[in-house]
Specification:
The chain contains 15 helices and no strands. It is mainly alpha-helical. It folds into two domains: 59-191, no CATH class; 195-416, no CATH class. α9 (209-247) runs antiparallel to α10, α9 (209-247) crosses α15 and α12 (287-317) runs parallel beside α13. The radius of gyration is 35 Å and the shape is elongated. It starts with 8 loop residues before the first helix and ends with a helix.
Length: 416
């Protein structure tokens, strides 16, 4: 019997058994549905429309911001007059009259003298150019510049810059018009303070009135501190320029120093507007005097930007030096000169809102001081609701401001 015929039954059974084929199930695809709520879409559309309208109405927004800054700056003077028995409307009239007179005196003191000096410089231009060419020719490294100075032609430069000059004067006229509009808007806001404040408090729940009044009071403090900081730095610049030009025997030192103090308000271009007239006025007195004025002005500008500005604004606005420098750079990058001018009060406002609205930042834990402050806020809100029950929003807002003002004075005294 062959080997194939001698197979055992077990072998035959295993051979005849057929392994079942495992069926492959189709792979199911997981579907993730993202549903956006209608309110989210509506909110997003509102934000986009709001940004578009704000960009289109940027000059109007800037006028409103300027008006609010004027109100915050002059409001303390009006309140000081009110505390001494003067009526509010008379105090507003007196403060705006003093502001107008001081502004006219500054312009009358600086503009005519500056125009006169510009005319003198234009008449002295050939002599100054020849003197500068001789100074260049005295050195082999700059001898080529001497011929360039002697052969310079201003016709092409004047022709190419005429359009830019026209645009500049148009911008100046628009800026003056916006500034006048902001002043009148601030005047109306101060005269109609109670009604405007009542309208604002009417749209905010009464449980948040104390917090809103504290925010408004701190906003006035921020704006006042910013304006005072600008006044301090501008006054110090004017005093330094007056002392420097007087020591160097340069005439019209008062007019140039007052103009330099006003121009110091402008970031980045203020350095050119302050140094330009001073150096130009020193040119007729020789290269030594001119270099002394130039070097000392550059040194003071560096001292002001590195030391004075962080110290003054940090004390008035309670901002760290790093935040001040970053805010100035960010504001100038985004919105130019206007952005740099508004960078510091906006940064101080954001930090104040984070503090007063009790915004919890990532990685920050509540401290004992924060807990005590929250308890005081809750107690003040309950007391305010008890005192103003059934009262109109206009009268209630006055009580909220009074309570918040008293609390801020107590906090300032405890910190002092």
């Amino acid at each position: 019997m062959s080997a194939l015929e001698r197979r055992s039954p077990a072998t035959d059974a295993s051979a005849s058994r057929i392994e079942p084929v495992q069926e492959v199930q189709p792979r199911q695809t997981r579907v993730i549905r993202v549903e956006i709520a209608p309110w989210t879409i509506f909110s997003l559309v509102l934000v986009i429309v709001g940004l578009w309208v704000s960009i289109r109405l940027l000059p109007v927004v800037l006028v409103l911001v300027m008006a609010l800054m004027i109100v915050g700056t002059l409001g303390s003077a009006v309140r000081w007059l009110e505390q001494r028995g003067m009526r509010r409307d008379m105090g507003i009239a007196l403060v705006f009259t003093i502001l107008f007179v001081v502004t006219m005196l500054i312009f009358a003191l600086t503009i005519p003298e500056l125009i006169s000096q510009v005319k003198n410089l234009v008449n002295m231009e050939p002599a100054l150019r020849e003197r500068l060419a001789e100074w260049f020719a005295s050195s082999p490294l700059t001898s080529n510049l001497a011929n360039t100075m002697r052969n310079a032609q201003y016709d092409a430069l004047i022709t190419s810059s005429s359009a830019s000059l026209l645009n500049f004067f148009t911008l100046v006229v628009e800026s003056v018009a916006y500034a006048v509009g902001a002043i009148f808007l601030a005047l109306y806001m101060m005269l109609d303070r109670d009604r405007l404040r009542g309208a604002l408090f009417a749209v905010v729940p009464r449980t948040h009135h104390i917090r809103l009044s504290r925010i408004l009071i701190h906003l006035q403090t921020i704006v006042g501190g910013y304006i005072r900081g600008q006044a301090i730095t501008s006054a110090l610049m004017a005093l330094f320029m007056f002392a420097l030009l007087t020591a160097c025997g340069i005439p019209n030192a008062l007019a140039i120093s007052v103009f330099g103090g006003l121009a110091d308000v402008l970031p980045y271009i203020g350095i050119f507007l302050t140094m330009g007239p001073a150096v130009a006025a020193a040119l007729p007195f020789g290269m030594t005097i001119t270099l002394v004025v130039l070097v000392l002005m550059l040194a003071y500008e560096e001292f002001e930007s590195r030391v004075l500005v962080p110290v003054v604004y940090g004390r008035e606005l309670r901002l760290p030096s790093s935040v001040i420098l970053f805010s100035l750079i960010a504001g100038a990058t985004l919105f130019g000169i206007i952005g740099a001018l508004l960078a510091l009060p906006i940064a101080a406002t954001i930090m104040m809102l984070i503090d007063k609205l009790r915004v919890e930042l990532p990685g920050e834990t509540e401290q004992a001081v924060d807990t005590e402050m929250r308890k005081k806020d809750e107690h003040s809100e309950r007391e305010y609701e008890r005192r103003t029950e059934g009262m109109p929003a206009e009268e209630a807002s006055a009580i909220a401001v009074e309570m918040s003002g008293a609390r801020k004075e107590a906090e300032d005294e405890s910190m002092a």
